[in-house]
User: Fold this.
Amino acid sequence: MTGARDRVLDAYETLLIDHGPGSATLDAVAAAAEVSKGGLLYHFASKDALVTGLLDRLRERSAADADAIRTAPDGAVAYYLRTSAPGGGVPGGVTRTYLAVLRISEGSSTGRTIREVLAEVDADAFAALRAELDDPVLAWLAQLVGDGLYLRTLTGTPLPPGLGVEDLLARMRRYLPDAGS
Amino acid sequence: MTGARDRVLDAYETLLIDHGPGSATLDAVAAAAEVSKGGLLYHFASKDALVTGLLDRLRERSAADADAIRTAPDGAVAYYLRTSAPGGGVPGGVTRTYLAVLRISEGSSTGRTIREVLAEVDADAFAALRAELDDPVLAWLAQLVGDGLYLRTLTGTPLPPGLGVEDLLARMRRYLPDAGS
DNA sequence: GTCTATATCACGATAGAC
DNA sequence: GTCTATCGTGATATAGAC
Assistant:
């Protein structure tokens, strides 16, 4: 029965995204995961261990997502933009974990390794996009557009009225190699 | 002599960007601004008031920056990308204030208004870019690329080796109306 | 207006029962 | 393995001297 570990990480993710790092206390995480504080600290001996656990999850999911980008039926760019847009993340995918980690990129002792993991995730996605696009500048452009959507998701800013991810894709397809329907 | 207020806000910004919200305590801000804690609390009666002060500053600077985007000699897109890229912010400009506010977008009592201000800033920049580009989809694309660069600045992720903002601009100019040299 | 001292409270972490 | 109870620390905020 190690499912409790994952429940704790899920709860931590949700609290970070919905209410920020200030509200993601050990008490709050334990309550949301429906374990006691002692129970939480049995699985994660300290708050740093909890952060490390989330970083490990992010690395795993990023590697899996890089494969998903490469094998997406409608093309790498379409997949990346879709999953970056608000509400586009799939359950168990990188998106939510990434957003959660973004919230804790402070300058503390763990701050350095957090940045390293975020750089890894970035490099994973860039490599996956390059596999389809070949041209590094185009791949970077596509990634930055997706990251811009990420930022919107992070801040909770709604999309401009009348515009959607489909419009971006339709416009970008003019300049990109054909990538499916 | 209201210069102390600005010194406090400058110090708060710097602490948020360099060490995160967890380290931006009243003590730390007061020390960095070279006033006593009591002196700080004279100008900002609570931490919420300090946050509100930073939000007001962000709104002012966003309005000023929208004008700067519109009148930039090398074009709106070039200006926006330049100032969004790591190290591209000018002293007293929006960039640093924006990054600082991003660090405190928690779900506290002030959380709601923070999101509203961030949405305003976003709308300001979008309108300014549209003034040059006319096509809303292209304007949004350009803004998202810039926001992607913002996100990199936020996370501290270095640019892909061998690539720079000039490459992005050179590539995008093929699809944009001519906007200066 | 600006300072020191202090009250109050919440968080992280530990100890030990079950 | 999971719980309750509790300690120590550090943060915000207040009171009041200068």
